[in-house]
Structures are given as structure tokens and as C-alpha cells.
Amino acid sequence: AKISTGGRTDADQKWKVSASGSYIAGQQAYWMRGRMLRNIRSDQQAGLEMITQGDPNYHANQFGVLLLGLKAGNSVNAGLKVGAMQVGGLGSHAYFGIELGSMY
To answer: Which helix (H) or strand (E) holds 79?
Structure first.
């Protein structure tokens, strides 16, 4: 069974705080993400994210910056993120990510 939750609140007119996470029973695997985003335009946000994930044999933390709300088509939005990832026992390395989303 997988349990997941998430939420977002507006700290004020410019800042949003969000958190989401999931846990998979049996595998004892977890994933949690927190974000602080600031509105920079009506449809774009920039901010920070922190992610932690793992299971009994693996653990990793990520910390990075992101830009959301980039237009990738008529109904597709994109986000870009870059940061550092620390994997238990293996040290740190850079990461880069692309997020795609669409409202329908």
C-alpha cells in the first residue's frame, strides 16, 4: 500500500509554501519534498526545494533552486531545477531536472 499527501498554502501575496510526501508499506520507502516559491510574474514562480527519499538500504537528500511556469506549448507548462544531491555513502553531485505539466 502507498500513502501519499500534499498541500500548499500562501504565506502572503508573493510567497507560497508547499509540501508533499509518500510512504510505501512493505518496502519501507519514503519520499518527501518541501518548496518555498515566490511569484515573479503572474504565472511564474522561483524558489527553493528540498527533497529527502530512501528506504532501509538507501537515503538521499537534495537541495536546489527552481523556476516554474515556463510556457512549453499552448497548454503545457515547464519548470527547471538545479541543485546538489547527497546520497548516503556516495557523496554529493549536481542534479538538473525538467518538470512538465498541463491543465485539462
So the answer is: strand 76-87
Q: For every one of its 104 residues, what pLDDT tens digit does the chain have, with 9 covering 90 and above? A: 899 999 999 988 889 999 999 999 999 999 999 999 999 987 899 999 999 999 999 999 999 999 999 988 888 999 999 999 999 888 899 999 999 998 77
d(CA 44, CA 63): 20
Q: pTM here? A: 0.85
**If you search the block for the grid coordinates 519514503, which residue do you land on?**
30
CA 5 – CA 59 distance, rounded (Å): 20
**Cell 512493505, located at residue:** 26
What's 16's DSSP letter?
E
- Distance (Å, rounded) from C-alpha 17 to C-alpha 41? 17
- In this structure, the chain runs to a length of 104
One-letter amino acid at 13 equals Q
